[in-house]
Amino acid sequence: MKITFYGHASIGIEVSGKTILVDPFISANPKASHINLANLKPDYIFLTHAHQDHTLDVEALVANNPETIIVSNAEIVTYYLEKGFKAHMMNHGGSWQFDFGKVKYVSAIHSSSFADGTYGGNPGGFVIEGEHKNIYIAGDTALTMDMKLIPMRTKLDLAILPIGNNFTMDVEDAIIASDFVGCDKILGCHYDTFGFIEINHQDAIQRFFNKGKDLMLLEIGQSIEL
């Protein structure tokens, strides 16, 4: 399983011959100006919620890749089905066996609406199991006790957690979240894109290290293999 960071909360996942793109917000992120959207060929787009900094590039990506399947909650999927896009609807607690592996849609605490004001339903996260590796994508969320449910069913190899504060968890809450989900290997996201969520990288890495955990802050476009 290959994980690529595209900036903000945009994550690419290559698993079992398929490509997943999570929360695509690339074209309007100046820090990701070296990423060519036209080169991205997702088989699936996973959306944790409807905010513009997570959905901005969906329509451009689907225009270039019309067979792409959008995966999200009922409200978000309905929004895109009405535009004629392909989509798979999920809701909290449910799971589905896709052609690359199993996906479970799990709780998150945040808000969710499209830029045009359309309600985006309740936000969520994803637990993805594929190629004998398991990852948790928290989405934009506060620290929540529901995270403790995840390791009851799934042993994680990686947790992708927001750490930028103000709109989501901060570093200290993300450390607690890593305890809750039983995973000491963390990929940070949702930080540095704009002023409200800028972080001190070395301090964040050290705080995780002090708790016996590995926080990875990838350069935009950088990948890791699980």
Features:
single chain, 226 residues, alpha/beta, 7-stranded mixed β-sheet, 27% strand, globular
How would you sum up this structure, described in words?
The protein is of the alpha/beta class. The relative contact order is 0.16. The longest helix is centred in the C-terminal third of the chain and has 11 residues, at 171-181. The strands form 2 sheets. The protein has a 7-stranded mixed beta sheet with strand order 6-5-4-3-2-1-14, covered by helices on one side. Strands 7-8-9-10-11-12-13 form a 7-stranded mixed beta sheet. The model has no long low-confidence stretch (mean pLDDT 98). It is globular. A hairpin with a 2-residue loop joins β9 (124-130) and β10. It has 6 helices and 14 strands.
Summarize the structure.
The chain is 19% helix and 27% strand. It is an alpha/beta fold.
Give the topology, please:
Elements (H helix, E strand, L loop, with lengths): L1 E4 L5 E5 L2 E5 L21 E3 L5 H4 L2 H7 L4 E4 L1 H8 L4 E4 L5 E3 L4 E6 L16 E7 L2 E5 L12 H4 L4 E5 L8 H11 L3 E5 L11 H10 L3 E3 L6 E3 L1
Parallel strand pairs: 3-4, 4-5, 5-6, 10-11, 11-12, 12-13
Antiparallel strand pairs: 1-2, 1-14, 2-3, 7-8, 8-9, 9-10
